[in-house]
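fyi for ur records
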Amino acid sequence: MNIKEFIVNVGPQGTFKPSGSYHSVPSDIDAMFQGFEADNVKKITLYFHGGLVNEESGMETAIKMGGHLSTIKQSPICFVWETGLIETVASNIGKISETKLFNKLIKILIKKLAPMLGFDSGLGRGSGITLTKEQIQIELNKIIPFENYTQSKLDESKGRGATSTTVMPLSVEDLEGEFKFEIEADLELVSILEESKFPISGQKGVQSRGVIDTMFLIKSVAKIAFRVIKRFASKRDHDFYPTIIEELLRELYVAELGAWIWNNMKVKSKEMWKDNTGISDINQFAGRYLFDKLVAYHMKYPEIQVNLVGHSAGSIAICNLLEMSSATYPQLCFENIIFLAPACRIDLFRDEVVLHQNRFKNFRIFTMTDSNEKRDILVPFFYTHSLLYLISGILENEGNEDDAYILGLERNIRATSPYDSADEISDAHNFLYEEGKKRVVFSQTNEDTPRGFRSQSLTHGDFDDDDETIDSIKFMLI
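which gave:
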Protein backbone atom coordinates (compact mmCIF):
# COMPACT_ATOMS: atom_id res chain seq x y z
CA MET A 1 0.00 0.00 0.00
CA ASN A 2 1.47 3.32 -1.11
CA ILE A 3 1.75 5.84 1.75
CA LYS A 4 -0.07 8.44 -0.33
CA GLU A 5 -3.10 6.17 -0.19
CA PHE A 6 -3.54 6.43 3.58
CA ILE A 7 -1.23 9.07 5.16
CA VAL A 8 -2.17 12.74 5.45
CA ASN A 9 0.57 15.13 6.54
CA VAL A 10 -0.67 18.22 8.36
CA GLY A 11 1.69 21.16 7.86
CA PRO A 12 2.08 24.61 9.47
CA GLN A 13 -1.14 26.13 10.87
CA GLY A 14 -2.94 22.89 10.02
CA THR A 15 -2.60 23.41 6.25
CA PHE A 16 -1.09 21.43 3.39
CA LYS A 17 2.03 23.60 3.47
CA PRO A 18 5.26 21.53 3.64
CA SER A 19 6.75 20.93 7.07
CA GLY A 20 9.36 18.28 6.33
CA SER A 21 10.54 15.75 3.78
CA TYR A 22 7.04 14.32 3.30
CA HIS A 23 3.95 16.39 2.65
CA SER A 24 0.43 15.92 1.32
CA VAL A 25 -1.46 17.98 -1.25
CA PRO A 26 -5.22 18.16 -1.93
CA SER A 27 -4.95 15.92 -4.99
CA ASP A 28 -3.63 13.13 -2.73
CA ILE A 29 -6.88 13.25 -0.77
CA ASP A 30 -8.89 13.27 -4.00
CA ALA A 31 -7.06 10.15 -5.16
CA MET A 32 -7.56 8.51 -1.76
CA PHE A 33 -11.35 8.74 -1.98
CA GLN A 34 -11.37 7.77 -5.63
CA GLY A 35 -9.62 4.59 -4.48
CA PHE A 36 -12.21 4.07 -1.76
CA GLU A 37 -14.99 4.28 -4.30
CA ALA A 38 -13.24 1.93 -6.71
CA ASP A 39 -12.72 -0.62 -3.92
CA ASN A 40 -16.25 -0.19 -2.54
CA VAL A 41 -14.85 0.74 0.88
CA LYS A 42 -17.41 0.69 3.69
CA LYS A 43 -15.19 0.81 6.81
CA ILE A 44 -12.81 3.72 7.42
CA THR A 45 -10.65 4.42 10.47
CA LEU A 46 -8.98 7.77 11.08
CA TYR A 47 -5.84 7.47 13.22
CA PHE A 48 -4.05 10.36 14.93
CA HIS A 49 -0.62 9.75 16.43
CA GLY A 50 0.57 11.68 19.46
CA GLY A 51 1.52 14.92 17.72
CA LEU A 52 4.55 15.23 20.03
CA VAL A 53 7.04 13.36 17.89
CA ASN A 54 9.19 14.28 14.91
CA GLU A 55 8.29 13.51 11.31
CA GLU A 56 10.24 10.26 11.10
CA SER A 57 8.58 8.81 14.21
CA GLY A 58 5.16 10.03 13.09
CA MET A 59 5.55 8.36 9.70
CA GLU A 60 6.77 5.09 11.23
CA THR A 61 3.78 5.00 13.58
CA ALA A 62 1.33 5.81 10.76
CA ILE A 63 2.74 3.06 8.55
CA LYS A 64 2.54 0.48 11.33
CA MET A 65 -0.99 1.46 12.32
CA GLY A 66 -2.06 1.50 8.69
CA GLY A 67 -0.84 -2.08 8.39
CA HIS A 68 -2.68 -3.17 11.52
CA LEU A 69 -5.96 -1.66 10.36
CA SER A 70 -5.66 -3.13 6.88
CA THR A 71 -5.52 -6.66 8.31
CA ILE A 72 -9.09 -6.29 9.61
CA LYS A 73 -10.40 -4.81 6.36
CA GLN A 74 -10.46 -1.27 7.69
CA SER A 75 -9.35 1.42 5.25
CA PRO A 76 -6.93 3.57 7.27
CA ILE A 77 -6.44 7.33 7.09
CA CYS A 78 -3.46 8.20 9.28
CA PHE A 79 -2.73 11.80 10.19
CA VAL A 80 0.90 12.83 10.67
CA TRP A 81 1.20 16.19 12.45
CA GLU A 82 4.64 16.23 14.00
CA THR A 83 5.84 18.88 16.46
CA GLY A 84 8.98 17.35 17.95
CA LEU A 85 7.98 18.32 21.50
CA ILE A 86 9.45 15.21 23.12
CA GLU A 87 12.84 15.87 21.56
CA THR A 88 12.67 19.53 22.63
CA VAL A 89 11.70 18.64 26.21
CA ALA A 90 14.34 15.93 26.54
CA SER A 91 17.07 18.11 25.05
CA ASN A 92 16.21 21.19 27.07
CA ILE A 93 15.75 19.24 30.29
CA GLY A 94 19.23 17.84 29.76
CA LYS A 95 20.65 21.33 29.25
CA ILE A 96 18.81 22.74 32.28
CA SER A 97 19.86 19.89 34.58
CA GLU A 98 23.51 20.36 33.64
CA THR A 99 23.63 24.02 34.67
CA LYS A 100 25.33 24.91 37.93
CA LEU A 101 22.47 27.19 38.94
CA PHE A 102 19.82 24.49 38.61
CA ASN A 103 21.84 22.02 40.63
CA LYS A 104 22.38 24.57 43.38
CA LEU A 105 18.70 25.47 43.53
CA ILE A 106 17.41 21.92 43.59
CA LYS A 107 19.70 21.07 46.52
CA ILE A 108 18.65 24.16 48.48
CA LEU A 109 14.95 23.41 47.93
CA ILE A 110 15.34 19.75 48.92
CA LYS A 111 17.29 20.67 52.05
CA LYS A 112 14.63 23.12 53.23
CA LEU A 113 11.47 21.35 52.09
CA ALA A 114 12.23 17.84 53.37
CA PRO A 115 12.02 18.81 57.08
CA MET A 116 9.13 21.22 56.43
CA LEU A 117 7.07 18.44 54.88
CA GLY A 118 8.37 15.82 57.31
CA PHE A 119 9.06 12.94 54.97
CA ASP A 120 9.81 9.43 56.09
CA SER A 121 13.30 8.84 54.71
CA GLY A 122 14.06 5.90 56.96
CA LEU A 123 14.69 8.24 59.90
CA GLY A 124 11.10 8.15 61.07
CA ARG A 125 7.89 9.66 59.80
CA GLY A 126 7.72 13.41 60.22
CA SER A 127 11.11 13.48 61.91
CA GLY A 128 11.84 17.02 60.67
CA ILE A 129 15.55 16.20 60.39
CA THR A 130 17.45 18.24 57.81
CA LEU A 131 19.19 16.10 55.23
CA THR A 132 22.95 16.42 54.93
CA LYS A 133 24.67 17.36 51.68
CA GLU A 134 25.87 13.78 51.42
CA GLN A 135 22.37 12.33 51.85
CA ILE A 136 20.96 14.68 49.23
CA GLN A 137 23.72 13.87 46.74
CA ILE A 138 23.23 10.12 47.24
CA GLU A 139 19.56 10.51 46.30
CA LEU A 140 20.32 12.78 43.34
CA ASN A 141 22.69 10.14 41.97
CA LYS A 142 19.81 7.66 41.72
CA ILE A 143 17.81 7.16 38.52
CA ILE A 144 14.70 7.94 40.59
CA PRO A 145 15.79 10.43 43.29
CA PHE A 146 13.82 10.45 46.53
CA GLU A 147 11.61 7.61 45.32
CA ASN A 148 10.69 6.62 48.87
CA TYR A 149 9.91 10.14 50.09
CA THR A 150 6.16 9.72 49.91
CA GLN A 151 4.97 10.31 53.47
CA SER A 152 4.43 13.81 54.84
CA LYS A 153 3.49 15.24 58.21
CA LEU A 154 0.62 16.86 56.31
CA ASP A 155 -0.75 13.31 56.12
CA GLU A 156 -2.41 12.84 59.49
CA SER A 157 -4.89 10.33 60.86
CA LYS A 158 -7.73 12.78 60.27
CA GLY A 159 -6.89 12.89 56.58
CA ARG A 160 -3.95 14.18 54.63
CA GLY A 161 -3.89 17.94 54.79
CA ALA A 162 -6.05 18.08 57.93
CA THR A 163 -3.34 19.88 59.92
CA SER A 164 -1.99 21.92 57.05
CA THR A 165 -2.87 25.22 58.76
CA THR A 166 -0.32 24.50 61.49
CA VAL A 167 2.56 23.95 59.07
CA MET A 168 1.53 25.92 56.01
CA PRO A 169 3.24 29.32 55.73
CA LEU A 170 0.74 32.13 55.39
CA SER A 171 2.56 33.81 52.51
CA VAL A 172 5.60 33.63 50.25
CA GLU A 173 7.21 36.34 52.36
CA ASP A 174 7.11 34.00 55.37
CA LEU A 175 9.51 31.73 53.52
CA GLU A 176 11.94 34.32 52.23
CA GLY A 177 13.82 34.35 55.52
CA GLU A 178 14.26 30.58 55.27
CA PHE A 179 16.23 30.99 52.07
CA LYS A 180 17.89 34.41 52.55
CA PHE A 181 20.85 33.24 54.61
CA GLU A 182 21.18 29.99 52.65
CA ILE A 183 21.55 31.86 49.36
CA GLU A 184 23.53 34.91 50.47
CA ALA A 185 26.07 32.84 52.41
CA ASP A 186 26.79 30.60 49.43
CA LEU A 187 29.63 32.40 47.66
CA GLU A 188 29.71 29.85 44.86
CA LEU A 189 26.02 30.45 44.18
CA VAL A 190 26.54 34.24 44.15
CA SER A 191 29.29 33.74 41.59
CA ILE A 192 27.03 31.51 39.48
CA LEU A 193 24.32 34.20 39.50
CA GLU A 194 26.72 36.64 37.87
CA GLU A 195 26.93 34.27 34.88
CA SER A 196 23.24 33.31 34.66
CA LYS A 197 20.64 35.25 32.70
CA PHE A 198 16.87 35.23 33.09
CA PRO A 199 14.02 37.56 32.09
CA ILE A 200 14.95 40.74 33.99
CA SER A 201 11.44 41.35 35.33
CA GLY A 202 10.98 37.77 36.41
CA GLN A 203 7.85 37.66 34.30
CA LYS A 204 7.20 34.68 32.01
CA GLY A 205 7.20 35.64 28.38
CA VAL A 206 9.48 38.68 28.78
CA GLN A 207 12.14 38.55 26.07
CA SER A 208 14.75 40.89 27.56
CA ARG A 209 17.24 38.92 29.61
CA GLY A 210 19.87 39.96 32.09
CA VAL A 211 21.83 38.97 35.18
CA ILE A 212 19.64 38.27 38.19
CA ASP A 213 20.50 39.35 41.71
CA THR A 214 20.26 37.48 44.99
CA MET A 215 17.06 39.22 46.10
CA PHE A 216 15.25 38.15 42.93
CA LEU A 217 16.48 34.59 43.47
CA ILE A 218 15.43 34.55 47.13
CA LYS A 219 11.91 35.65 46.17
CA SER A 220 11.77 33.10 43.34
CA VAL A 221 12.90 30.19 45.50
CA ALA A 222 10.43 31.21 48.22
CA LYS A 223 7.63 31.16 45.63
CA ILE A 224 8.70 27.69 44.52
CA ALA A 225 8.78 26.36 48.08
CA PHE A 226 5.41 27.95 48.93
CA ARG A 227 3.72 26.30 45.96
CA VAL A 228 5.27 22.92 46.72
CA ILE A 229 3.96 23.05 50.30
CA LYS A 230 0.58 24.30 49.11
CA ARG A 231 0.26 21.44 46.63
CA PHE A 232 1.07 18.87 49.32
CA ALA A 233 -1.44 20.44 51.69
CA SER A 234 -4.16 20.26 49.02
CA LYS A 235 -3.08 16.78 47.82
CA ARG A 236 -2.32 18.17 44.36
CA ASP A 237 1.34 17.17 44.49
CA HIS A 238 3.09 14.75 42.12
CA ASP A 239 5.34 13.33 44.87
CA PHE A 240 8.30 15.04 46.51
CA TYR A 241 11.01 15.29 43.84
CA PRO A 242 8.80 15.64 40.72
CA THR A 243 6.76 18.41 42.40
CA ILE A 244 9.89 20.40 43.26
CA ILE A 245 11.13 19.95 39.69
CA GLU A 246 7.78 21.12 38.29
CA GLU A 247 7.66 24.23 40.44
CA LEU A 248 11.31 25.09 39.72
CA LEU A 249 10.67 24.75 35.99
CA ARG A 250 7.44 26.73 36.28
CA GLU A 251 9.14 29.67 38.00
CA LEU A 252 12.40 29.93 36.06
CA TYR A 253 12.48 27.62 33.04
CA VAL A 254 8.97 27.14 31.63
CA ALA A 255 9.79 28.85 28.31
CA GLU A 256 12.94 26.81 27.84
CA LEU A 257 11.07 23.60 28.61
CA GLY A 258 8.80 23.91 25.58
CA ALA A 259 5.35 24.79 26.95
CA TRP A 260 4.94 27.06 23.91
CA ILE A 261 5.41 24.04 21.61
CA TRP A 262 2.66 22.18 23.47
CA ASN A 263 0.35 25.16 23.09
CA ASN A 264 1.20 25.49 19.38
CA MET A 265 0.44 21.81 18.91
CA LYS A 266 -3.00 22.29 20.47
CA VAL A 267 -3.64 25.26 18.19
CA LYS A 268 -2.61 23.18 15.17
CA SER A 269 -4.96 20.37 16.21
CA LYS A 270 -7.83 22.86 16.07
CA GLU A 271 -6.79 24.86 13.02
CA MET A 272 -6.60 21.78 10.79
CA TRP A 273 -10.44 21.64 10.83
CA LYS A 274 -11.07 25.27 9.81
CA ASP A 275 -13.33 26.08 6.85
CA ASN A 276 -11.64 26.21 3.44
CA THR A 277 -14.12 28.56 1.78
CA GLY A 278 -12.20 31.03 -0.39
CA ILE A 279 -8.87 29.21 0.11
CA SER A 280 -7.07 27.21 -2.56
CA ASP A 281 -4.26 24.71 -3.10
CA ILE A 282 -1.79 24.07 -0.25
CA ASN A 283 -3.15 27.01 1.77
CA GLN A 284 -6.23 24.92 2.57
CA PHE A 285 -6.62 23.25 5.96
CA ALA A 286 -5.71 19.58 5.58
CA GLY A 287 -8.09 18.07 8.13
CA ARG A 288 -11.10 19.98 6.86
CA TYR A 289 -10.34 19.16 3.23
CA LEU A 290 -10.31 15.47 4.09
CA PHE A 291 -13.43 15.76 6.24
CA ASP A 292 -15.35 17.44 3.42
CA LYS A 293 -14.40 14.53 1.14
CA LEU A 294 -15.53 12.12 3.86
CA VAL A 295 -18.87 13.94 4.12
CA ALA A 296 -19.40 13.67 0.36
CA TYR A 297 -18.55 9.96 0.52
CA HIS A 298 -20.97 9.44 3.44
CA MET A 299 -23.75 11.25 1.56
CA LYS A 300 -23.27 8.86 -1.34
CA TYR A 301 -22.83 5.77 0.87
CA PRO A 302 -24.60 6.47 4.19
CA GLU A 303 -24.04 2.89 5.33
CA ILE A 304 -20.26 3.39 5.79
CA GLN A 305 -18.75 3.07 9.26
CA VAL A 306 -16.16 5.61 10.41
CA ASN A 307 -13.94 5.06 13.48
CA LEU A 308 -11.59 7.43 15.32
CA VAL A 309 -8.42 6.31 17.12
CA GLY A 310 -6.12 8.79 18.85
CA HIS A 311 -2.93 8.33 20.84
CA SER A 312 -1.86 10.91 23.45
CA ALA A 313 -2.38 14.39 21.95
CA GLY A 314 -4.25 12.71 19.10
CA SER A 315 -7.21 12.75 21.51
CA ILE A 316 -7.15 16.57 21.34
CA ALA A 317 -7.34 16.50 17.55
CA ILE A 318 -10.30 14.11 17.75
CA CYS A 319 -12.17 16.30 20.27
CA ASN A 320 -11.71 19.27 17.94
CA LEU A 321 -12.88 17.15 15.00
CA LEU A 322 -16.03 16.18 16.92
CA GLU A 323 -16.84 19.82 17.60
CA MET A 324 -16.46 20.76 13.94
CA SER A 325 -18.21 17.64 12.65
CA SER A 326 -21.26 18.21 14.82
CA ALA A 327 -21.56 21.81 13.69
CA THR A 328 -21.16 21.13 9.97
CA TYR A 329 -22.48 17.60 9.35
CA PRO A 330 -24.24 16.09 12.38
CA GLN A 331 -25.56 13.20 10.24
CA LEU A 332 -22.19 11.48 10.62
CA CYS A 333 -22.22 9.32 13.75
CA PHE A 334 -18.85 7.70 14.44
CA GLU A 335 -18.94 3.96 15.11
CA ASN A 336 -16.07 3.74 17.63
CA ILE A 337 -13.85 6.28 19.36
CA ILE A 338 -10.70 4.87 20.97
CA PHE A 339 -8.22 6.92 23.01
CA LEU A 340 -4.75 5.61 23.90
CA ALA A 341 -3.11 7.34 26.90
CA PRO A 342 -5.09 10.51 26.09
CA ALA A 343 -3.38 13.83 26.80
CA CYS A 344 -6.49 16.00 26.37
CA ARG A 345 -7.89 18.06 29.20
CA ILE A 346 -10.89 16.56 30.96
CA ASP A 347 -12.99 19.69 30.39
CA LEU A 348 -12.43 19.38 26.62
CA PHE A 349 -13.34 15.69 26.78
CA ARG A 350 -16.48 16.46 28.79
CA ASP A 351 -17.57 19.19 26.38
CA GLU A 352 -17.03 17.25 23.14
CA VAL A 353 -17.60 13.60 24.12
CA VAL A 354 -19.47 13.17 27.40
CA LEU A 355 -22.10 15.84 26.74
CA HIS A 356 -22.67 14.76 23.12
CA GLN A 357 -23.03 10.99 23.11
CA ASN A 358 -25.12 11.20 19.95
CA ARG A 359 -21.89 11.79 18.04
CA PHE A 360 -20.70 8.17 18.43
CA LYS A 361 -21.82 4.66 19.31
CA ASN A 362 -18.94 3.17 21.32
CA PHE A 363 -16.07 4.67 23.32
CA ARG A 364 -13.03 3.23 25.14
CA ILE A 365 -9.82 4.50 26.76
CA PHE A 366 -6.64 2.50 27.23
CA THR A 367 -4.24 4.03 29.74
CA MET A 368 -1.96 3.10 32.64
CA THR A 369 -2.73 2.68 36.31
CA ASP A 370 -1.39 5.53 38.42
CA SER A 371 1.36 3.35 39.88
CA ASN A 372 2.58 2.41 36.40
CA GLU A 373 2.22 6.02 35.22
CA LYS A 374 4.59 7.12 37.96
CA ARG A 375 7.11 4.45 37.02
CA ASP A 376 7.17 5.57 33.37
CA ILE A 377 10.29 7.73 33.72
CA LEU A 378 10.39 10.57 31.21
CA VAL A 379 13.97 11.70 31.96
CA PRO A 380 16.07 9.58 34.36
CA PHE A 381 17.58 11.48 37.33
CA PHE A 382 15.49 14.56 36.51
CA TYR A 383 11.78 14.12 35.75
CA THR A 384 10.89 10.69 37.06
CA HIS A 385 7.17 10.47 36.24
CA SER A 386 5.46 10.13 32.86
CA LEU A 387 4.86 12.58 30.03
CA LEU A 388 1.21 12.93 31.10
CA TYR A 389 2.37 13.99 34.56
CA LEU A 390 4.64 16.62 33.01
CA ILE A 391 1.80 17.87 30.81
CA SER A 392 -0.45 18.08 33.86
CA GLY A 393 2.19 19.69 36.06
CA ILE A 394 3.78 22.25 33.75
CA LEU A 395 3.04 22.16 30.00
CA GLU A 396 -0.74 22.55 30.01
CA ASN A 397 -1.85 26.18 30.09
CA GLU A 398 1.86 27.11 29.96
CA GLY A 399 2.36 26.22 33.61
CA ASN A 400 -0.39 28.42 35.01
CA GLU A 401 -2.15 25.61 36.92
CA ASP A 402 -1.00 23.51 39.88
CA ASP A 403 -1.85 20.35 37.99
CA ALA A 404 -4.26 20.35 35.07
CA TYR A 405 -6.88 17.61 34.84
CA ILE A 406 -5.68 15.21 32.13
CA LEU A 407 -7.90 12.42 30.83
CA GLY A 408 -5.20 9.74 30.71
CA LEU A 409 -4.28 10.10 34.39
CA GLU A 410 -6.06 7.57 36.60
CA ARG A 411 -5.73 9.89 39.61
CA ASN A 412 -7.98 12.37 37.80
CA ILE A 413 -10.68 10.14 36.31
CA ARG A 414 -11.13 8.09 39.50
CA ALA A 415 -12.72 11.26 40.92
CA THR A 416 -11.42 10.74 44.45
CA SER A 417 -10.32 13.56 46.76
CA PRO A 418 -9.15 16.20 45.93
CA TYR A 419 -10.39 15.60 42.38
CA ASP A 420 -13.99 14.90 43.36
CA SER A 421 -15.17 18.51 43.47
CA ALA A 422 -14.62 19.50 39.83
CA ASP A 423 -17.79 19.19 37.73
CA GLU A 424 -15.90 18.13 34.59
CA ILE A 425 -14.19 15.29 36.45
CA SER A 426 -17.47 14.12 37.95
CA ASP A 427 -19.13 14.12 34.52
CA ALA A 428 -16.22 12.27 32.91
CA HIS A 429 -16.08 9.73 35.73
CA ASN A 430 -19.80 8.96 35.52
CA PHE A 431 -19.51 8.45 31.77
CA LEU A 432 -16.40 6.26 31.89
CA TYR A 433 -17.67 4.14 34.76
CA GLU A 434 -21.30 3.86 33.64
CA GLU A 435 -22.60 0.45 34.69
CA GLY A 436 -22.22 -2.21 32.04
CA LYS A 437 -20.18 -0.06 29.63
CA LYS A 438 -16.53 -0.63 30.69
CA ARG A 439 -15.21 2.37 28.83
CA VAL A 440 -11.78 2.52 30.47
CA VAL A 441 -9.01 -0.10 30.51
CA PHE A 442 -6.01 0.24 32.82
CA SER A 443 -2.75 -1.38 31.86
CA GLN A 444 -1.57 -3.92 32.74
CA THR A 445 -4.53 -6.25 32.49
CA ASN A 446 -4.74 -9.85 33.71
CA GLU A 447 -4.37 -12.93 31.53
CA ASP A 448 -8.07 -13.80 31.86
CA THR A 449 -9.22 -10.33 30.68
CA PRO A 450 -11.65 -10.66 27.73
CA ARG A 451 -10.53 -9.64 24.25
CA GLY A 452 -11.09 -5.99 23.50
CA PHE A 453 -10.15 -5.01 27.06
CA ARG A 454 -6.50 -6.08 27.17
CA SER A 455 -3.36 -3.94 27.40
CA GLN A 456 0.18 -4.57 28.59
CA SER A 457 1.76 -1.19 27.87
CA LEU A 458 4.02 0.19 30.58
CA THR A 459 5.14 3.37 28.83
CA HIS A 460 3.24 6.30 27.40
CA GLY A 461 4.61 5.80 23.91
CA ASP A 462 4.07 2.05 23.76
CA PHE A 463 0.29 1.85 23.46
CA ASP A 464 0.34 1.89 19.67
CA ASP A 465 3.06 -0.79 19.68
CA ASP A 466 1.76 -3.09 22.42
CA ASP A 467 0.42 -6.34 20.91
CA GLU A 468 -2.39 -6.70 23.47
CA THR A 469 -3.60 -3.12 22.95
CA ILE A 470 -3.45 -3.48 19.17
CA ASP A 471 -5.44 -6.73 19.40
CA SER A 472 -8.03 -4.95 21.56
CA ILE A 473 -8.36 -2.18 18.97
CA LYS A 474 -8.76 -4.71 16.17
CA PHE A 475 -11.37 -6.64 18.15
CA MET A 476 -13.41 -3.48 18.67
CA LEU A 477 -13.26 -2.52 14.99
CA ILE A 478 -13.99 -5.87 13.41
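Residues 123-127, 156-166, 200-209 have pLDDT under 50 and may be disordered. thats all i got for now
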